[in-house]
Amino acid sequence: MLYSSSILTSGSSPSSAPTFYSSPQSAAMKDAEKLIRDLDSNGDRYVDFVDLDEFMEAIIECGSKEGELMDAFLIFDIDKNGFISAKELQRY
């Protein structure tokens, strides 16, 4: 399945634009259009499986790094209070 940024655009003329474009939802529509542009790695104005796969790999990689960082933090946070004190750092 392909998703096109053209689906998210208002039409060929201002008179054909849906009424929700003038509502607060227009900001959400702009965000959605930007997301399509950002995900579209080859510039064809479509988000295909490859584009989505690359995006998901980036998210998973980021989550993995966050997990590793948390693991490292927990090693130093000896009293498990959510903070690393100078005393805790000195133990290493």
Your description of this structure?
The structure is a single chain. This protein is mainly alpha-helical. The protein has three helices and two strands; from the N terminus they run βαβαα. The protein has helices spanning 25-39, 49-76, 86-90, and strands at 3-4, 46-47. A two-stranded antiparallel ribbon has the order 1-2. Residues 27-62, 64-92 form the EF-hand domain. Residues 1-22 are annotated as: Disordered. GO terms for molecular function: calcium ion binding.
How big is the Rg?
Answer: 22 Å
> Outline, from the CA principal axes?
elongated
Helical stretch tally = 3
Class of secondary structure makeup: mainly alpha
Oligomerization: single chain
Helix content: 40-55%
Total number of β-strand segments?
2
For the sheet with most strands, the description reads: 2 strands, antiparallel
Through-space gap between termini: 52 Å
Strand content: under 5%
Topology as a string of helices (H) and strands (E): EHEHH
- What's the rounded overall pLDDT mean? 74
Question: In order across it, which strands form the biggest sheet?
Answer: 1-2
Low-confidence stretches: 1-21
Question: How would the blueprint of this fold be written?
Answer:
Elements: E1 3-4, H1 25-39, E2 46-47, H2 49-76, H3 86-90
Antiparallel strand pairs: 1-2
Quick structural overview:
Helix content is 52%, strand content 4%. With 92 residues, the chain is mostly helical.
Keywords:
single chain; 92 residues; two-stranded antiparallel ribbon; elongated; disordered N terminus
